[in-house]
Amino acid sequence: MSDYDYVVVGLGALGAAAAWQLASRGHTVVGLEQFELGHTRGASHDTSRILRHSYHTPAYVRLTCEAYDDWARLEAESGEQMVTVVGGLDLFPPDCAISPVDYVGSLREVGIAFEELSAEEIRARWPVFDPPPGTRGLYQARGAIVPAARGTAAMQRLATSCGATLLGSTRVTRVTDHASHVVVEAGDTAYTCRGVVVAADAWTNRVLVGLGVEIPLTVTLEQPTYFAPPHLSAFQDVPLWIWMDEPSYYGFPCYGEPTVKAAQDCGGPVVDPDRRTTEPDQEMLDRLAAFMRSLLPGSGPVVRSLRCQYTLTPDRDFVLAPVPDHPAVVVGLGSAHGFKFAPTFGRILADLVTTGETTSDVSAFGFDRPGLTDPAYQANWMV
Ligand SMILES: Cc1cc2nc3c(=O)[nH]c(=O)nc-3n(C[C@H](O)[C@H](O)[C@H](O)COP(=O)(O)OP(=O)(O)OC[C@H]3O[C@@H](n4cnc5c(N)ncnc54)[C@H](O)[C@@H]3O)c2cc1C
User: Fold this and answer.
1) Pocket of ligand 1, candidates 34, 35, 219, 248: which has the most ligand atoms within 8 Å of its Cβ, to mutate?
2) Is residue 360 domain-resident?
3) Radius of gyration of the chain (CA)
4) CA 23 to ligand 1 center in whole angstroms
């Protein structure tokens, strides 16, 4: 038996952030991770993630403003540069699956500056892009890259330096709510605490077993890929980009190495996170390489591919809320676009588990929404 104020289950980006925030407020915290810290079997490894203002609702755009502020706090407290501003370009081809109207309207409502560009203007400004005629570009100067593994490690380090105990190779097998306290079982140890943050992403439902809730989650196995452009200098000053159609793709300029990274969004097979391959998939690679040859003809040969899990809710909205009837058990789930919000989610999850409230707008991220409760809800991940 071991006593802490709070237990955090899962130490990827979200759990690391929650442990850091809870420990920095003076609580005793233990974070439990089933694999070694910094492993590559979840969603928070590899080099880079997109941080951007452009989103499909004003509420999301407002939350991105908090994200930029919270990354700045992480930079100040870690002493490390985290945010590399490169500009962000959303590309909407004719008849695209994702409507530019929501993006433009949301940025405008929140007062975030942006530019609208034609295909010709995009080509003139960044000659590496060759978008089809009629493509509309939405350029936002603050689009940025944040480090994935390095950012997660920094939050783990901050958690530890604030007094949290972080344990790798420690799998949580059961969480039981006793009203006055919660018990978290891992191996031979039972941790008694006031509250638990579950940040287990693809394994969330396994951790919640016994609490009477199951979130309709789909786990897919994605495949970011690195290309080596022969004329590297042309790719130094390009923005990160997102192809806003079905299929959807995204990519980065050079970041810390002489490559450019790209991937399909939601392009991988549905998998069981405990039984999936770590090997690259040739068909996915061929599909991405063909797209890269058409949009970025100079992106060059493939250097390497890796696998990474997406854990998707049907509406692609996050879960940031206490489990129904179990206010001491709070879930944080990023629905495969949560890295940019990791420092923000850490703050929100710490608020929710300690006080039941937060100043951030999490009204869309509860358990009681149609995307999670209506079995007939039509999943839509292209937002
Ligand atoms: C290829 C790819 C590209 C992405 N691009 C972006 C992007 O550009 N911008 C963006 O904002 N987001 C992006 N995302 C999404 C973002 O990376 C994820 O939302 C985020 O990293 C999820 O963090 P997490 O801590 O919830 O999950 P994870 O990193 O998977 O961490 C969950 C942890 O819980 C542990 N765990 C599970 N069960 C247990 C248990 N029973 N006991 C102990 N530990 C347990 C797991 O081992 C794991 O370490 C991308 C994701 C992928 C895969």
Assistant:
1) 34
2) yes
3) 21
4) 21
Q: Is the CB of 13 under 6 A from ligand 1?
A: yes
Distance between Cα 136 and ligand 1 center (Å)? 32
The CATH number that applies at residue 135 is: 3.30.9.10
In a domain, residue 76? The reply is: no
Cβ-count burial 11-41 (b if 16+ within 10 Å, e if not): bbbbbbbbbbbbbbeebebbbbbbbebbbeb
With tokens 């609208």, the residue in question is 116
Rounded CA-CA distance 356/353 in Å is 6
Span 255-276, mean pLDDT? 97
Could you tell me if 247 and 133 lie in one domain? Answer: yes
Closest atom, ligand 1, to C-alpha of 223? 1
* Residue ranges making up the domain that contains 319: 2-44+149-215+314-373
Distance 121 CA to ligand 1 centre (A): 36
Q: What is the pLDDT of residues 28-78, one digit of tens each?
A: 999 999 999 999 999 999 999 999 999 999 999 999 999 999 999 999 999
Pocket test for ligand 1, best of 30, 33, 48 (most atoms within 8 A of CB): 33
At position 178, the amino acid (one-letter code) is H
- The pTM assigned to this predicted structure is 0.98
Q: How many domains in the chain?
A: 2
SS3 label, residue 8: strand
User: Do 223 and 133 share a structural domain?
Assistant: yes
Percent of the chain at pLDDT exceeding 70: 100
